[in-house]
């Protein structure tokens, strides 16, 4: 005899809402509400203690005359422009090496991923600072090969590359994405190319790169967003110096918020950073779409 199950009245109707309610509540409390509050605070003169005073878009107008803001935008864009392509190239090259089927390759994959787990913590920062001091290992190596030592922390043209090198050292996550994509490329493609007389270099440009274009684009977008939001490395290693050559927008937001207690201006700057990031990513998607249409 077939059993008939009776649901409580209304349970089936609201099951979907009940299941998504934890996410919906968390989204409203931890994302949407702070998002709206940040925008509203950016329209006020607020020190985080006294009652905020509504000033409209005065904070946004003041940015155009703020030399620190202009400097931070220039540094952030410069850092991102150098950091993103270098990290993509290093990650892809390392993934190609680690995709080789040789004995013990798993050990090397783990070793190359470890720096991404460590991140820019205090121990890594201390080690990195020592490497680039006047008598650090980097300058000692330069003297061995007959080159003059470099004032890494005193030269504004060199200091930004200390931050870039630290972030390049943490390429594990990007490398893993590339490595997974490389594993999904059928080996038959390379076998057929080998039969046609294509070498490894030619196969890379004719097979590997075209099949990785979606993964490359995704990694470029993710790393661009990360580059525009950079804060930890310059704050912990150079503190924005020298002459604010490593002073990013993230550091400007931090200083305005927690050093000068100018919460209204800090939130306004953070919204400008959000708009800059959104515009850059939008342009990247448009260029990528245009490029795809031209290939068809």
Give the helices and strands, then pairings:
Blueprint: H1 11-41, E1 44-45, E2 53-54, H2 58-63, H3 67-98, H4 105-118, H5 122-131, H6 137-144, H7 156-169, H8 172-183, H9 187-195, H10 200-211, H11 213-228, H12 232-237, H13 249-259, H14 263-295
Helix pairs in contact: 3-7, 3-8, 3-11, 3-13, 4-8, 11-14, 13-14
Summarize the structure.
With 296 residues, the protein is mainly alpha-helical. The chain has helices spanning 11-41, 58-63, 67-98, 105-118, 122-131, 137-144, 156-169, 172-183, 187-195, 200-211, 213-228, 232-237, 249-259, 263-295; strands at residues 44-45, 53-54. Strand 1 and strand 2 form a beta hairpin.
What does this structure look like?
The protein has 296 residues and is mainly α. The protein has a single domain, classed as MetI-like fold (Orthogonal Bundle), CATH 1.10.3720.10. Helix content is 72%, strand content 1%. The chain has helices at residues 11-41, 58-63, 67-98, 105-118, 122-131, 137-144, 156-169, 172-183, 187-195, 200-211, 213-228, 232-237, 249-259, 263-295, and strands at residues 44-45, 53-54. Strands 1-2 form a two-stranded antiparallel ribbon. A hairpin with a 7-residue loop joins strand 1 and strand 2. Helix 3 (67-98) packs parallel to helix 7 (156-169) and helix 3 (67-98) runs antiparallel to helix 11.
């Amino acid at each position: 005899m077939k059993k008939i199950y009776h649901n409580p009245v209304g349970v089936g109707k609201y099951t979907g809402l009940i299941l998504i309610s934890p996410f919906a509540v968390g989204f409203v409390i931890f994302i949407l509400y702070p998002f709206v509050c940040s925008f509203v605070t950016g329209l006020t003169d607020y020190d985080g203690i006294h009652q905020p005073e509504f000033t409209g878009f005065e904070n946004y107008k003041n940015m155009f005359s703020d030399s620190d803001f202009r400097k931070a935008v220039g540094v952030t864009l410069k850092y991102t422009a150098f950091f993103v392509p270098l990290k993509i190239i290093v990650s892809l090259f390392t993934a190609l090496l680690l995709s080789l089927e040789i004995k013990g390759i798993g050990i090397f994959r783990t070793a190359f991923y470890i720096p991404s787990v460590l991140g820019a913590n205090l121990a890594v920062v201390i080690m990195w600072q020592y490497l680039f001091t006047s008598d650090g290992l980097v300058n000692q190596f330069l003297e061995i090969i007959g080159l003059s030592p470099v004032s890494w922390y005193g030269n504004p043209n060199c200091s930004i590359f200390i931050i870039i090198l630290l972030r390049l050292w943490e390429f594990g996550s990007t490398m893993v994405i590339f490595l997974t994509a490389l594993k999904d490329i059928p080996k038959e493609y390379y076998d057929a190319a080998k039969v046609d007389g294509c070498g490894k270099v030619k196969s890379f440009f004719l097979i590997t790169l075209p099949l990785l274009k979606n993964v490359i684009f995704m990694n470029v977008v993710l790393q661009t967003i990360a580059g525009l939001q950079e804060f930890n490395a310059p704050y912990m290693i150079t503190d924005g110096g020298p002459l604010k050559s490593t002073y990013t927008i993230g550091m400007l937001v931090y200083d305005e918020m927690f050093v000068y207690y100018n919460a209204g201006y800090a939130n306004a700057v953070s919204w400008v950073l959000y708009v800059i990031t959104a515009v850059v990513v939008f342009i990247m998607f448009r260029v990528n779409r245009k490029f795809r249409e031209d290939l068809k």
